[in-house]
Amino acid sequence: MANWPAIGSIILPNVGGWVNGLYFAGQIRSEEGKSWYDNLKKAPWNPPKWVFGPAWTVLYSSMGYASYLVWEECGGFTESSVLPLTLYGSQLALNWSWTPIFFGMKDYKLAFIEIIVLGVAATATTISFVHYNKTAAALMLPYLGWLTYASSLSYYIWKNNPKSEPRVTEIKDEKTQ
């Protein structure tokens, strides 16, 4: 018999990642085959683009299953599960928010600040999980490691790719000429 709560908890975090990925993938491609993202100055330790999809699938699945373990340990949505699952939901929302900030707004500074806040929220989630299920907390550790790595990538891009400001051109009044 299928454990639907466990399956749902694994699928849910991935859905946000897939939606972001599908939506923004079309916005970063150009007709020439290169995108604005390809033209960014990236850290020497930046992985190839194909790594991100599989890495995030594993990380989302792992953190989703961790949330299920806490949910199960607490007997579902109970008074004892409010804090850890609220922290989990908050950090997940922050996680999903980074992509529109970086790829949609192209605001590299805000994206870096956001990923730092996300890291703090994910750490708080992990600490809260350890009180209910040590395996759940352990499942969050690769995610915390990846967030640290991703934060370094985000910082590098912010510092090495100044956001271009719109050019201001002088407007001449034809009546005064």
From TrEMBL:
Its main location: membrane. It comes from the Eukaryota. One of its GO terms (cellular component) is mitochondrial outer membrane. The keyword Electron transport does not apply. The chain crosses the membrane at residues 6-25, 110-130, 136-158. InterPro entries: TspO/MBR-related_sf, TspO_MBR. The keyword Transmembrane helix applies. One of its GO terms (biological process) is tetrapyrrole metabolic process. It holds the Pfam family TspO_MBR. It is found in: Membrane. PANTHER family: PERIPHERAL-TYPE BENZODIAZEPINE RECEPTOR (PTHR10057), TRANSLOCATOR PROTEIN (PTHR10057:SF0). Belongs to the TspO/BZRP family. This is Translocator protein.
